[in-house]
């Protein structure tokens, strides 16, 4: 009698445990959160990322959702400010109770939010950041798809120096985590060749005047300049260089890969090299599936897609694949088990196959290189 009663209690406890709610998950909905710049210096890219994510989310919902659940996305605007990012993350975690942080934008802002996500036990899924902390140290709370800026420039710079005969390398860098990661990677590449910086100049995030940095680079007779910059700053530096008649080889990372750069910079940015992962989705792209996707995006938003639109779509598509593989009983643990056994196939944006494991939190460590030629990005290697 007693053993039967105890058995019944154990079964009841197990049933109650199985029915415990999971944050952000109901029988009808999966609630996810993201942090984007919708009002600051990267507001253009932030809105394009949002559009790309929303496009894929709406497609999934139009097909009935995932295992009967519709997706809903809540986005907080951090204005590219780490302090605002922390406040936004706190809201998403505590008030909105989202299931997961998906595709948050920016290295400095992401780094500011990581302690909060870790304390909440929340997965940071595919942040649009090329900081190594997005996947190091290995953690079940980290899934990243983007090679670190450090590794992008470390691998790309030696080949470019050899191809262009560069000897005197300088850096103009944004004085924050992004800029420091890029310059450290370039410095590692130089040291491996027994070289040092010829000159190195920083600027504060949000700066618009680069006259002193460019003048110093010109005075140092730099034949190659590593740009640890994002969109507006890349254009500003190269426009100033053109005014001074300074014509080194400029090279940046994926942080400086955007259709906004040739659009805003015109002739001043011709010849810029940048490492990249997702192809710029031109409406006349020779890549047929990408061209078709770009046309659908244009019809939906009445605007040309950009690489950031592609990032948003790819990130949300990868999340959908993970949730599908996790099955109906969705939890952070089941999602993690699914992701660690999942192979994400090559995408229409040119990303290679990605896979993960307990010690492999970065799905891909390969970046390609493109150059601005005739006002548009041209892929130089596959």
TrEMBL record:
Coiled coil region boundaries: none
GO biological process: amino acid transport
Residue span, Leucine-binding protein domain: 30-373
Pfam families per the UniProt record, alphabetical: Peripla_BP_6
Domain of life: Bacteria
Keywords assigned: Amino-acid transport, Signal, Transport
Family: Belongs to the leucine-binding protein family.
UniProt protein name: ABC transporter substrate-binding protein
Species assigned in the record: Pseudacidovorax intermedius
